[in-house]
Design brief:
It is built from ten helices and ten strands. The protein has 303 residues and is an alpha/beta fold. It has one domain: 2-enoyl-CoA Hydratase, Chain A, domain 1, CATH 3.90.226.10. It is elongated.
């Protein structure tokens, strides 16, 4: 097929216009992606303060540890504010979070803000910060370790069930709900509880301006209000994020105009119900404790 000269010129003009519009479309699409990334804080973020929320039952969490480790290494993160609202969790979970926050503090200031409750393992984690705030009505403290089991042998006997346990030695798998607790098993378990308690109290003595004797008097498992915690030296002051930023500006030379970016400390959310079931299992049936360790959890007594 042949075309006359005018038709060929028209086709060439049409192709040029089409290329121009394709270029404009690609440019607008690229600009739109850049604007979206910028609006979500994913591009050209620059220096900033990271905000991290620790909520619910605290257990060992590799994803959380990696996220916090990244904050320590990120030079654009000038400081970290940790909001804590948790009744505690496993001792290992509290220890893991404490070490992660101390790792950040080696490179940049860390401030902790306690919410409605920050007890047991959550208090352990909170005092890893360089400065700790709470609300007047915050419930905190509950310094201690607990292991709860149950003896259900009488119940099993009533329903005609005879538990059978074969083990290599008397103390293996104790305490167990399927056999009475012997004096030897109780003593061995108490030794473990006491050792972990000393570990917890040692952190308090190391991190808070409290003499050893006074710290041990406070570490009897009781809870404190935010105001009481300040009076006893368990935390530094009453306040929130505004006070934390002001402290960073005044004491740690952090620019006042830095934006605050919320960082997800967990990549996956297992859900509160699942974690509650896990912790209940560790609390009520102690031979499940081998999964995560003993519990440092504030449990309000029911009536």
């Amino acid at each position: 097929m042949s075309y006359d000269p005018d038709t060929l010129l028209d086709r060439r003009r049409l192709k040029r216009r089409l290329r121009i519009w394709q270029g404009v479309t690609l440019f607008l699409a690229f600009a739109g992606v850049l604007m979206l990334l910028q609006s979500q804080g994913q591009l050209f973020r620059g220096e900033r303060i990271a905000r991290v929320h620790i909520e619910g039952i605290i257990i060992r969490d590799e994803a959380r540890s990696q996220a916090l480790s990244s904050l320590a290494k990120d030079d654009d993160i000038r400081a970290v504010i940790v909001h804590i609202d948790s009744p505690g969790g496993s001792v290992v979970g509290g220890e893991d979070l404490y070490n992660s926050l101390r790792g950040i503090s080696e490179h940049k200031p860390v401030a902790a803000i306690m919410g409605t409750v920050a007890t047991s393992a959550a208090y352990m984690a909170g005092i890893a910060a360089d400065q700790v705030w709470a609300r007047e009505g915050t419930v905190t403290g509950s310094i201690g370790v607990i292991l709860q089991s149950a003896n259900i042998t009488d119940l099993l006997e009533r329903i005609g069930v005879e538990p059978v346990t074969i083990k290599s030695s008397e103390l293996k798998g104790t305490p167990s709900p399927f056999e009475p607790l012997t004096k030897e098993a109780r003593a061995a378990t108490q030794d473990v509880i006491q050792d972990l308690y000393e570990f917890f109290v040692g952190i308090v003595i190391d991190r808070r301006p409290i003499e050893s004797g006074a710290a041990r008097e406070l570490a009897d498992g009781r809870i404190f209000s935010g105001r009481q915690a300040v009076d006893h030296g368990l935390i530094d002051a009453i306040g929130g994020e505004k006070e934390a930023v002001s402290w960073m500006v005044r004491k740690r030379d952090i620019p006042a105009e830095l934006p605050i970016e919320t960082i997800r400390a967990r990549k996956t959310d297992e859900g509160f119900l699942k974690k509650l079931v896990e912790m209940s299992g560790k609390s009520l049936f102690s031979n499940a404790l081998t999964l995560d360790g003993l519990v440092s959890l504030w449990q309000p007594a029911g009536r």
